[in-house]
Amino acid sequence: MHEVGLVDGVLKCAIETARQAGASRIISVRLRVGDMREVVRESLDFAWEAMREDDPLTAEAELVVEEVHPRSVCLACGAEFDHDRWHLRCPVCGSGETSAIRGRELDIVNMEIETPD
Fold first, then answer.
1. Cα 112 from chain centroid?
2. 25 has which bridge partners?
3. Closest C-alpha to 22, from 49, 52, 57
4. Structural domains in the chain (count)
5. What's the average pLDDT block by block, 10 residues per block, for the chain (117 residues)?
6. CA 59 to CA 41: how far, in whole Å?
7. pLDDT score of 103
8. Does the residue 93 lie in any domain?
């Protein structure tokens, strides 16, 4: 379950950033995750719920996930097309020579924090 490692890294980054900003707590963390990363959402949510409680800054933090569906470009004919994780062949010319445009993202987009007054 690589989701545990993912959540561990996100929490460490969020906590470090929040501390540098003088936050009293983290309200939410927004991730952008491409389908090609094969992250199981239920496992991600489970890991988040379990691990966020380890630090007072993140104890009540919400995880918001923006899913990014795959899109590729055909290197043979130049066509751009949407697809799922397994069907990467160009629907126009049938070539298997394609390159991902999106769908491999794994980014912390932003986070909302609370600072003491």
1. 16
2. 114
3. 57
4. 1
5. 93 98 98 96 97 97 98 98 93 97 97 92
6. 20
7. 97
8. no
